[in-house]
């Protein structure tokens, strides 16, 4: 299991469109499960569940923890972290 923390810098946080982009990005990474939750919060959801990600209510300034399990964890984690830096 690999994980990283990220502070959201996007003005509107993670709403429908960015959650959908994240799901689309991760969908192509077969064999890996990617989850997200607010840092320190018990609620964690699979990023493929767009409504679940939106339900976290992630806003600008929130710190999130992203966890990758299965598949090539190192490569998937690096790719997802790069996606966050480019989009959130």
Provide a quick synopsis of the model:
The protein is an alpha+beta fold.
Task: Give a structural overview.
There is one protein chain. The protein is α+β, with helices and mostly antiparallel strands. It has a single domain (2-87), classed as HPr-like (Histidine-containing Protein, Chain: A), CATH 3.30.1340. 38% of the residues lie in helices and 26% in strands. It has three helices and four strands. It has helices at residues 16-27, 50-55, 73-87; strands at 2-7, 32-38, 45-46, 63-70. A four-stranded antiparallel beta sheet has the order 1-4-2-3. Strand 2 (32-38) and strand 3 (45-46) form a beta hairpin. Helix 1 packs antiparallel against helix 3 (73-87). The longest helix has 15 residues, at 73-87. The protein is globular and about 30 Å long. The chain starts with a strand and ends with a helix.
List the helices and strands and how they pair.
Blueprint: E1 2-7, H1 16-27, E2 32-38, E3 45-46, H2 50-55, E4 63-70, H3 73-87
Antiparallel strand pairs: 1-4, 2-3, 2-4
Please name the defining characteristics of this protein.
88 residues, alpha+beta, Histidine-containing Protein, Chain: A, 4-stranded antiparallel sheet, 3 helices
Overall tally of domains: 1
- Distance, first to last CA: 23 Å
What is CATH's topology name?
Answer: Histidine-containing Protein, Chain: A
Class computed from helices, strands and strand pairing: alpha+beta
Overall mean confidence score, pLDDT: 95
Helix/strand order: EHEEHEH
CATH class: Alpha Beta
Unreliable stretches covering 5 or more consecutive residues: none
What CATH architecture do you see?
A: 2-Layer Sandwich
Oligomeric composition of the shown chains:
single chain
* Main sheet makeup: 4 strands, antiparallel
Helix content: 25-40%
């Amino acid at each position: 299991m690999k994980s990283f923390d990220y502070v959201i810098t996007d003005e509107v946080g993670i709403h429908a469109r960015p959650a959908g982009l994240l799901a689309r990005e991760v969908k192509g990474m077969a064999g890996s499960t990617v989850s997200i939750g607010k840092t320190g919060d018990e609620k964690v959801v699979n990023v493929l569940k767009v409504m679940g990600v939106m339900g976290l209510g992630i806003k600008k300034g929130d710190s999130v923890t992203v966890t990758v399990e299965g598949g090539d964890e190192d490569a998937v984690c690096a790719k997802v972290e790069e996606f966050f830096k480019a989009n959130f």
